[in-house]
Amino acid sequence: MNKLRTKSNIPILEIFGPTIQGEGMMIGRKTMFMRTAGCDYSCSWCDSAFTWDGTEKPIMYSPDKAFEEIYKIGGGGFDHVTITGGNPALIGQGMSELIDILHSKGISMGIETQGTKYQDWFSKSDDIVISPKPPSSGMVTDYTKLDFIINNIQSNKQNKSLKVVIFNEEDYQYAKNLHFRYPNIEFYLSVGNLTPYSEEDHTAELLRDLEKLCNKVINDPSLKSVKVLPQLHTLLWGNKRKV
Amino acid sequence: MNKLRTKSNIPILEIFGPTIQGEGMMIGRKTMFMRTAGCDYSCSWCDSAFTWDGTEKPIMYSPDKAFEEIYKIGGGGFDHVTITGGNPALIGQGMSELIDILHSKGISMGIETQGTKYQDWFSKSDDIVISPKPPSSGMVTDYTKLDFIINNIQSNKQNKSLKVVIFNEEDYQYAKNLHFRYPNIEFYLSVGNLTPYSEEDHTAELLRDLEKLCNKVINDPSLKSVKVLPQLHTLLWGNKRKV
């Protein structure tokens, strides 16, 4: 019994909320967050490096126990859960079971993943954000894998989008190429946060960077069907965790 | 010939863009704006009172001429037009023709209206934001009309949402009641701008109000399926017009 259970365990680094989703397609949505441990990437500017750099240890929860914790922490005042990481796509059976439990309680959910690994349970996710990492991350996109994922989710009815965080001109070109490669999936650009661990107020800087990115897109006739967004939580709460 | 044309003329107060949509369901979207003249409301805090208070005169354009102007001003670097007011739902045949022209050019469009008047062309709009005005506006919602509109757009495939601007506690209660009355339509709360004609920098104030509204929603277990958003353009560009 215990061995069977172990197969479904999910390595969890934090559960918090309800709060307001700060970025991408679901911006503004009241949601719980569950952050899984482990990542196949190590982006230079990762704002959640504690999920993969060994500084924090995950708790292993069965899907039932994960739901129980989400429910306890959220106090019942939510109907959506955002699962992010690390890379939640590294997890198989446990995630599939957790999604079924959430749906059975009338709770919708979404995931955010960089698009390096496909899981069958992607088709059950109510919303899915694929956020490939641009050159400034230091990571290299494997287009064979990304093509496979985009092709697989393309025909699903769920809300889906591509989101790229922009730090520099090279990132912007990378994002444009992605959009031209997958023109039929909603396309979001997000402003990069250069100081994800600073405790100072960077609001003015973040808004200035957002304005620059907006102006770039406004003046770029080759980019039309695009949404440019800030990280709302960073404007509101700085780099504080668990908000 | 001229008389026939007149029937379709659209009273236009401004056309600008491309820019980035600042609020609601289409937040972040690169789009052109066309603002129609005339409103059946006169909200106390209206940020576009020049559309109805007589201070500015509209130009009357045929749908063809309106498209020509949008295209000329936008320079071809767009594929979406947002039509706002004033109340664009006051306009009949001309709007229907303009939508057909836009669609024939591969351009999608959306409207924002307060939900006081239905038009058959609503069904052709790719996105539609119904933004009933809360008590602080001084306006009174006619629920017979609003029910009719919501019922009519409910089954359409287009993106649609309800959006309420919040200035105070009474507005918040009004918004909640709306959401409970129409639970199946996406529900957005937006932070009110108390100083829509000031030239000073109100960023800190606006972010503080947004934080307050977020905290209110976070701590309200009866509000679950909701999105809380700022007016991005006001954070970026203050109260400047035509951005």
UniProtKB/TrEMBL annotation, chains A, B:
Q: Which PROSITE patterns match?
A: RADICAL_SAM
Q: Which UniProt keywords apply?
A: 4Fe-4S, Iron, Iron-sulfur, Lyase, Magnesium, Metal-binding, Queuosine biosynthesis, S-adenosyl-L-methionine
Pathway(s) of this molecule: Purine metabolism; 7-cyano-7-deazaguanine biosynthesis
Q: Which domain of life is it from?
A: Bacteria
Report the GO molecular function annotations.
lyase activity
Instruction: Name the cofactor(s) required for activity, per the record.
Output: S-adenosyl-L-methionine; [4Fe-4S] cluster; Mg(2+)
Its family?
A: Belongs to the radical SAM superfamily. 7-carboxy-7-deazaguanine synthase family.
- Its protein name is 7-carboxy-7-deazaguanine synthase
